[in-house]
Specification:
This protein has about 375 residues and is of the alpha/beta class. The protein has ten helices and 19 strands.
């Protein structure tokens, strides 16, 4: 057996040895796992995974390469990648580059050959923690020192949000939607364009006056990374515009909408990440299999004295996955209804947003 070249050192002291690919450098990130069987390209380019080291629970990764049309953003967002078995000879006619080539070019380190099942169990049982991907020669004492001294970044929205506004237009549009960019994905914008919406994407700290200057029919809050408590400007924007415009939030946007209405949000012990999470709609009693990248959750009891009511819950652990305002055209969901990659069971939530804008426009 060829000698190991890299290792993962967890904050709890556990070490896992393997072989490096991608960029040949050291990194420290929050470690999370993802249960997706497909969609690793969408995952590594999803801003919700910014500066996170992702353990892929599905063992074979890289086997269909990367295609130019399948990125969710222009740059790779993930901080590191951990896989059981990396395949560097893709068999997909659409692929243009291998996963290794893209990670190497973007400066993202990765490791293969480690026991991803054991690492996943540790995250599940102990919660997410810091992890160091380093050279195999790094001593345990040195690795633990680096982990202890490193502080995980929190205000990641500022890092991933656009710096200036930009547009995505569609022919014969019916509505104008302003998207607050907390880490927007291309697939989300496509869902809006396909439904006749011209989209204006603005930075996370855009003022209320800037947003209203575009005369929007609705406001959309995107998913994204980081700690929701650090996005006060977005929360204040929702407070100022709720009731004046239809509002739809997903992922991080859902948490920010909830906080703007007075709900409390807390860090989860074990994240929801993957494309196989069953969510029950309390309005229809239908169960949908959804895509999620969730680290924080709305506390159900905190909704009692607000104008919000629960619309969706996680079947497995009962976490709040969707809310709506009782007296205003506002709703949000924790999961990703655009489901890229993933199932398309919940994409009709975009149709609900269109209906709210139509009703508001004709009122």
């Amino acid at each position: 057996m060829k000698p190991f070249t890299k290792k993962i050192v967890l904050e709890n002291g556990r070490e896992f040895y393997g072989y490096g690919f991608g960029a040949d450098r050291e990194t420290i990130c929050q470690i999370v796992f993802n249960t997706a069987v497909v969609g690793y390209q969408e995952l590594i380019s999803d801003p919700a995974y910014t500066d996170q080291m992702v353990v892929m629970t599905y063992p074979l990764i890289g086997n269909y390469g990367l295609a130019d049309e399948d990125y969710e953003t222009k740059t790779i967002a993930v901080g590191g990648l951990i896989v059981r078995d990396y395949n560097d000879t893709p068999s997909n006619f659409r692929y243009t580059r291998t996963l290794n080539e893209v990670l190497e070019e973007q400066g993202i380190p990765a490791i293969t050959g480690v026991d991803t099942r054991m690492i996943t169990r540790i995250i599940r049982d102990e919660g997410s923690q810091k992890a160091l991907l380093t050279d195999v020669a790094t001593s345990h004492e040195e690795a633990m020192r680096k982990l202890a001294e490193f502080t995980l970044p929190e205000n990641l929205i500022e890092k991933v949000s656009c710096k200036k506004r930009w547009f995505s237009r569609t022919p014969n549009h019916r509505f104008d939607v302003v998207v607050v960019d907390c880490g927007i994905k291309y697939s989300t914008i496509r869902c809006l364009n396909q439904r006749g919406c011209n989209v204006t994407v603005v930075p996370y700290d855009a003022s209320v006056e800037e947003i209203l200057a575009f005369r929007p029919d609705g406001l959309f809050l995107s998913s994204g990374p980081g700690t929701p408590q650090h996005a006060r400007s977005v929360i204040d924007t929702v407070k100022a515009l709720k009731g004046r415009l239809p509002i739809f939030g997903i992922g991080l946007g859902h948490l920010l909408v909830s906080m703007a209405y007075g709900a409390r949000v807390e860090k989860m012990k074990a994240d929801h990440r993957g494309i196989n999470h069953p969510i029950r709609s309390l309005e229809t009693n239908r169960i949908s299999i959804t895509s999620q990248s969730q680290s924080y959750s709305v506390v159900a009891d905190s909704l009692k004295n607000t104008d919000l009511e629960i619309t969706h819950v996680d079947v497995l652990d009962g976490e709040v996955e969707g809310i709506r305002a009782k007296s205003e055209p506002t709703f949000s969901v924790q999961f990703h209804p655009e489901s890229a990659a993933g199932q398309q069971y919940s994409v009709d939530l975009f149709d609900k947003f269109i209906k709210l804008m139509e009703e508001h426009k004709n009122a």
